[in-house]
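Anyone up for a design puzzle?
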C-alpha cells in the first residue's frame, strides 16, 4: 500500500517537473526572438539637472568629488564652479587660500555648447565654446582680478544607451591683474560620468 502511494506521488512530481521544464523552454525560446532596439536620442534629451563625478587634476595632484550642474538649450550652468585649484595657483599660501575661498563663496559659470546628433552611435555630440572665467580674489586686504582661460579640446557626449553626459574642460591660462601667471600647470576638469536626477 505504501509503495503504491509513493509511486503515485513520484508520478505526479515527474509530471509537474515535465510541465515546468516545458514552460521554461518556451519562455526562453520567446526571448531569443526579442531584439534590443535602442531609443534614438534627441537634442532635447541633453536638457536636465545632473549629478556628476568630477576628477580635477593638476600635475601630480588629483581630487575627486561630486558636483551638480544643469543643461538647457545649448548651455551648461554650474551654480558652484570648482575654483579651489585656481585660487591655490594665485594665492599659494594654504591658509590664505581657504580664507579667500570663504570670502569668494559660490561662483556661477555658464558653458556654451552646440549639440549634434550622431545617429550611428546613438549619441549627442557637444562642441563647447568656453568663455573666460573672471574671479575677484581677496588677498591681504587687496583684490586680485583673476581671468581664467578655459578650453575644451574634445567633444562632450550624451550617451543614448545609459543617458549619461561625459565631457572635460581645462584651465589653460590664468592672468592676475593683467599679468599671466607663470609658471602655471593646466588644471583639468574631467566629468567621466554625469547622470540626470
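Challenge accepted. My sequence:
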Amino acid at each position: 500500500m505504501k509503495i503504491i502511494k509513493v509511486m503515485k506521488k513520484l508520478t505526479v512530481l515527474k509530471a509537474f517537473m515535465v510541465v515546468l521544464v516545458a514552460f521554461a523552454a518556451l519562455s526562453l525560446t520567446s526571448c531569443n526572438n526579442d531584439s534590443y532596439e535602442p531609443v534614438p536620442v534627441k537634442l532635447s534629451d541633453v536638457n536636465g539637472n545632473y549629478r556628476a563625478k568630477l576628477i580635477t587634476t593638476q600635475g601630480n595632484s588629483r581630487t575627486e568629488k561630486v558636483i551638480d550642474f544643469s543643461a538647457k538649450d545649448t548651455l551648461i550652468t554650474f551654480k558652484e564652479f570648482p575654483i579651489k585649484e585656481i585660487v591655490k595657483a594665485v594665492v599659494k599660501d594654504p591658509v590664505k587660500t581657504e580664507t579667500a575661498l570663504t570670502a569668494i563663496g559660490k561662483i556661477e559659470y555658464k558653458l556654451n555648447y552646440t549639440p549634434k546628433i550622431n545617429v550611428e552611435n546613438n549619441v549627442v555630440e557637444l562642441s563647447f565654446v568656453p568663455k573666460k572665467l573672471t574671479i575677484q580674489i581677496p588677498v591681504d586686504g587687496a583684490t586680485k582680478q583673476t581671468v581664467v582661460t578655459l578650453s575644451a579640446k574634445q567633444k562632450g557626449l550624451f550617451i543614448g544607451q545609459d543617458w549619461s553626459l561625459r565631457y572635460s574642460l581645462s584651465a589653460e591660462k590664468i592672468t592676475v591683474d593683467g599679468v599671466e601667471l607663470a609658471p602655471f600647470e593646466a588644471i583639468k576638469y574631467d566629468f567621466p560620468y554625469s547622470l540626470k536626477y
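A detail worth pointing out: The chain has two domains: 1-35, 43-196.
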